[in-house]
Amino acid sequence: MKKAILTVTLLAFAALCAARAQAQIVVIANTSVSADAVSKAELRDVYNGVSTSLKSGARVRPVILKDCPTHNQFLMDYLGKNSVTFLIAWRGLVLSGQATMPKSVDSEPAMVDYISKTAGTIGYVSKATPHDSVKELSVH
Q1: Alpha-helix runs per DSSP H in the chain
Q2: Which tens digit of pLDDT belongs to each residue from 87-114?
Q3: Pairing label, strands 121-126, 61-65
Q4: Among candidates 85, 83, 80, which has minimal Cα distance to 69?
Q5: pTM of the predicted structure, to 2 decimals
């Protein structure tokens, strides 16, 4: 009985930690993007190179951070991948001529700056990063 209670407690704690981690990542877009919300499936499709538009019809181009904690957290939370598998998948798409690699930026402020100036772009930053110049998309 104690083992079952411990297991349930640990699972609840893990779920709480995962939800809290996702809450720390903010999905942002250029103000030209007509959508105000995006699903996890839409993010996954856009960032896996499967789709270039959201269900709302808004065409988007993904922007990624160079390898950093925010990038790694975004990949795990929304794509279920680590940075190595993400990069390998994109290289396959690029080498087969199916896609071009997403724009990569060096820092979260650079992500906000690039997205604010580039129509149709979508990206992500930590919640603590100032992002008033871009649209924040809710994720469901």
Answers
A1: 2-23, 40-47, 69-74, 83-95, 108-117
A2: 999 999 999 999 999 999 999 999 999 9
A3: parallel
A4: 83
A5: 0.82
